Amino acid sequence: TCDRYMSERETSWRMNQSNLMVQEFIVVGFPGIQDRSNKNILFGVLLVVYLCIILGNLLITIAFLTDHTMHTPMYTLIFSLALLDMMSSTTTVPKFLDVLGSDSGVISITACFIQMFLYGILKTTESFLLGLMAYDRYLAICKPLHYFSIINNNLVLKLIICCWAIAFVLVAIPTIVAFKLPFCGPNKLAHFFCEHSTVVKLACGYDLIVSYASITLGLSVKLGPLFYIVYSYVRILKSVFKIESSHGRLKALSTCTSHLMVIFVFYLVGTGVVITNSVPGSSEDVRIMAALLYNVMPPLINPIIYSLKTTEMQAHFVKLIKTKNTPQRH
């Protein structure tokens, strides 16, 4: 009888605990932008930006899929980057648009962690992909005669899959740890999406060790590829300066300009996020705006860079326009 009583007590306690646990979060967005007029302005601007992101990267995707002359390692990497840009922005922006438009930022805890997981994988893969693009440029300039014997589309696809697999493992670990934390207190997320550190801070018995471990892992994912990119371009510059003709040097460097600009945008905005998170006293709105720019600026600018700086891409778009404008003969 005593055992039965204790078992009933334990069952009742567990039911009470489960009832106390948070079942959903409320995405606040910008704490300083809660009035309807400002929300409408932000909604309109963000919607236009998102549509431009989808359109620009979709054009690159269609160009790659329809033009077989572009099926080279470099364009395979550009195509993969375009897909990543579309997916990463789609993971967060539509939900935030819903928050701005409907004043309802409710998201289930499961959906929140799925969003966190997908966003982490996509941004981590993008970081690795930029490193892989640096490797491609290094081979093209430093080993031009052996380029196609070293790298081909099959190898590039395998390397891209490796980037995804490593990103999956690296992001899965902190996400699982965060998911197992008890959430029994406040459920308002002062962010525009389920960002890892913001979610973890809402857990009961907030663990600094978990937070610092996640920050360290995040920085390693960003800085590891960056160090390799810097190393690759040091080697590239050494090779370029050995070229005797100035025309040859400029031609070699011109093949790297688009990639360098993409890297600059990605890491410049990313550095802004780190600075706003690190500086004491920085407002939540500034921190969230930096994260939003990091989410939408690279996907918005990357298609513009590759369209303006890549001759083959320009030629394809010109051919596409001419095809559309040519009257069909019946």
Explain what you see.
This protein is an all-alpha fold and 330 residues long. The protein has a single domain, classed as Rhopdopsin 7-helix transmembrane proteins (Up-down Bundle), CATH 1.20.1070. 78% of the residues lie in helices and 3% in strands. The protein is globular. The protein starts with a helix and ends in a 5-residue tail after the last helix. Mean pLDDT is 83; it is low at 8-19.
Jot down its keywords:
single chain, 11 helices, 330 residues, GPCR_Rhodpsn_7TM, Rhopdopsin 7-helix transmembrane proteins, 3% strand, 78% helix, mainly alpha, glycoprotein, Olfactory_GPCR1
Summarize the structure in short.
The chain has helices at 2-20, 36-66, 73-102, 109-142, 147-150, 153-179, 196-200, 208-241, 246-278, 284-309, 311-325, and strands spanning 24-27, 106-108, 188-189. The chain has 330 residues and is mostly helical. Belongs to the G-protein coupled receptor 1 family.
Helix content: over 70%
Find the structural class using helix and strand composition.
mainly alpha
Compute the separation of the termini in Å: 92 Å
Number of strands: 3
Q: Return residue spans where pLDDT drops below 50 for at least 5 consecutive residues.
A: 8-19
CATH fold field value: Rhopdopsin 7-helix transmembrane proteins
Oligomer: single chain
CATH class: Mainly Alpha
Number of domains: 1
The count of helical stretches stands at 11
Radius of gyration: 24 Å
Largest sheet: 3 strands, mixed
Shape: globular
What is the string of SSEs from the N terminus onward? HEHHEHHHEHHHHH
Mean of pLDDT? 83
- Architecture, CATH level 2? Up-down Bundle
InterPro entries: GPCR_Rhodpsn, GPCR_Rhodpsn_7TM, Olfact_rcpt, Olfactory_GPCR1
Keywords: Cell membrane, Disulfide bond, G-protein coupled receptor, Glycoprotein, Membrane, Olfaction, Receptor, Sensory transduction, Transducer, Transmembrane, Transmembrane helix
Pfam families: 7tm_4
Transmembrane segments: 41-65, 155-179, 209-231, 252-276, 288-308
